[in-house]
Amino acid sequence: MRYIILILCLLCAFPAFTQKKLDKYRVEFTDKNDSPYSVLKPQEFLSPRAIDRRKRYGIAIEENDLPVNPQYLSEVRATGATVLNVSKWFNSAIVWAERDTIAKIEALPFVSRTTPVGKHRPSRNKNKVPARKESKEYERTPEPYGYGAAQIGMLNGHLLHYMGYAGDGMLVAVLDGGFTNVNIMPFFDSLRADGRLLESRDMVFGDNYAYEASSHGSQVLSTMAANLPGLMIGTAPDATYVCIRTEEVGSELIVEEDNWVAGIEYADSLGADVSNTSLGYTTFDQKDMNHSYEDMNGDVALATRAADIAASKGILVVNSAGNSGNDAWKFVGVPADGDSVMAVGGVDRFGNKASFSSFGPGADGEMKPNVAAMGANTVVASLYDYDIGGSSGTSFASPIMAGMAAALWQAFPEKNNMEIFDAIEQSGSQGTAPDYELGFGIPDFFSAYLMLSEGMIPLGEPASFMQPKPISDELSFLFMTEENELNHFEINIYNIFNENVFSTKKKYPANTIIEEVIPNIDDWQSGVYRADIRLNDLVYRVGLIKESVGETGSANASNVDTDWDRP
After folding, report:
1. What is the DSSP string of 59-86?
2. Are 261 and 302 in contact (CB under 8 A)?
3. What is the DSSP letter of 392?
4. N or C end of the chain, less CB within 10 A?
5. Angle CA(434)–CA(438)–CA(444) in degrees, nearest 5?
6. Paired residues of 233 in beta bridges
7. Is residue 549 packed enough to be buried (19+ CB in 10 Å), middle (13-18) or exposed (0-12)?
């Protein structure tokens, strides 16, 4: 197994020249008067999923949700300009035009101002896609999470998976510089087969193909969506994803913030629950575009303001903190400085801060980063075959966190984005004493689960209690049967490979206190198990952790979760 160590920077654009002639402009409009759209008819500009999210969390549909007046865009095009991107939240558009055409646009009565922001590249550099290996056999480890076990185990994220929470039903938008080979990589076979990879979007060229330009987004996606047991499983393998390209690889100009705004607005219109961005902006190829540290206050940069708007629309916005920890600029960048943005710092496999991980605070004193995950030597998928590699950067800590946030939110769909955000922070290893290196620290997602469920094990109908005390040879469940004349009881226990290690079916009379003993657990291998318990029409799923047998010969099986559900 090859294990290639790569260092990928947060800012994946490499300035090769100084831009002198800019022909991309931000055109800002004065109003949305005479718009054919109305907040009373959101179905004309928002997907059913986006509308449902607003209804579920009591989020009003406002004027900034209305698209830019299409008549304004038509008149801009009539000058000879090409409209590349549009922002409804900022009532603006990015256009490609010569300076004399811009003068015509500035003369339009509904245009407030224009600003040069970038350089158009009329040709695109599509990647040559290599032939994929036909064989579906690959070297597997005994550990289902394969070489990525450490990065999810650090967060106790695997426990959520064993409870059945791996992102099912959640939509995650990934904004990045490109997604080379995502459409053919074997790590995403199940994603494509299940129809959970939505049509991609390229905000640089304005089309629906983003599987090119950079491998950065492909590797970012793999930390969440990979699903090759024994090799690598991501933090949200059951989620649905949309890949959105916003970064103009090859240069660094402020138009990329406009691209990002268009991307996050697109994600909102689709009804995305979580967004991940492993990009950030501080300085540019043209110095007059640079941000200062004073700008990092959550209210200045365009992308930061858009990130906070996205959060107000119900999206959990996750962003890499940055890789400037060893540089003169050591702080987080844009849009990680947003007040409602979860900025994610990087640690090594031992939980120590990675030296490159950017520091806080924001210029306004905001706690940054917010939390941390594994960003040093993170395991990522190979672009070409059944193989993995290693990459470093908060670029990879961020999606690991975003995937786990999606899994956690799946368990509590009634909670809003900021309630999920707060629970993740409070579950951190530094939850009571955050600092400007790792924020609230490394979250424990099982603890976050307990916080959101108020730490309660159901004791209602039927009353139940599991005894996971340290024992050497048995595990017991105590429960009270329902008022049925005859109660049907069944229990099945599965190991990490989904193999059944214990099974029993019994019948019990009504209103009876029963203790069901599971014998000989000292013969089981240490690790995580799942118990599915059925009493009549109620299903009780319990996660178990059995630790290694110690010198005294004792074993410890502990309760990691219980949850009633009606099938």
Report:
1. PPP-GGGSPPPHHHHHHHHHTTPEEEEE
2. yes
3. E
4. C
5. 80
6. 227
7. middle
CB count in 10 Å sphere of residue 515 = 10
**Which of 76-85, 272-281, 498-507 is least confident?**
498-507
For residues 217 and 178, the answer to whether their CB atoms sit within 8 Å is yes
Arithmetic mean of pLDDT over the chain = 86
Give the CA distances from residue 131 to residues 17, 147, 208, 300, 384, in Å, rounded to whole numbers and listed in that order.
34, 25, 22, 46, 8
Of the pLDDT bands very low, low, confident and very high (cuts 50, 70, 90), residue 157 is: very high
**DSSP conformational letter for 483:** S
Contact 392, 8 (CB under 8 A): yes
175-184: pLDDT as tens digits: 999 999 999 9
pLDDT reported for residue 125: 56
| Integer Cα distance of 118 and 258 in angstroms | 10
CA distance 165 to 210: 29
Stated as kind and residue range, the H or E segment containing 503 is strand 500-509
If residue 346 lies in a helix (H) or strand (E), which one and from where to where?
A: strand 342-347
Quick check: 13 pLDDT over 60? no
Beta carbons of 127 and 179 less than 8 angstroms apart: no
Q: In angstroms, rounded to a whole number, what is the distance separating the alpha carbons of residues 235 and 224?
A: 5
Q: Distance between CA 501 and CA 231 in Å, rounded?
A: 24
Residues facing 142 on adjacent strands = none
How far apart CA 257 and CA 350 sit, in angstroms, is: 34
Structure tokens belonging to residue 348: 């090594």
User: Quick check: 397 and 8 in contact, CB under 8 A?
Assistant: no
Tokens 């890499």 identify what position? 320
Task: Give percent of the chain above pLDDT 90.
Answer: 66
Domains delineated in the chain: 21-118 (3.30.70.80), 149-452 (3.40.50.200), 464-565 (2.60.40)
Per-position DSSP letters for 318-374, written without gaps between them = EEE--S-TTSSS-B--BTTT-TT-EEEEEE-TTSPBPTTSPB---TT----S-EEEE
Q: Which is it for strands 274-277 and 171-176: parallel, antiparallel or unpaired?
A: parallel
pLDDT band at 133 (very low <50, low <70, confident <90, very high): low
| pLDDT tens, residue by residue, 365-387 | 999 999 999 999 999 999 988 99
On the 0-12 / 13-18 / 19+ scale of CB atoms within 10 A, 566 is exposed
The partner residues of 263 in beta bridges, in order of sequence, read: none
List C-alpha distances in Å: 138 to 3, 134, 146, 180, 526.
15, 11, 12, 22, 26
- Residue 459, pLDDT score: 30
| Tens-digit pLDDT profile for residues 185-200 | 999 999 999 999 999 9
d(CA 160, CA 147): 19
Q: What would the two tokens of residue 427 be? A: 């579950």
Q: What is the pTM of this model?
A: 0.79
Burial class (CB in 10 A: 0-12, 13-18, 19+), 149: middle
According to DSSP, the residues that pair with 532 across neighbouring strands are: 492, 541
Whether residue 443 is preceded by a cis peptide bond, meaning omega within 30 degrees of 0, is no
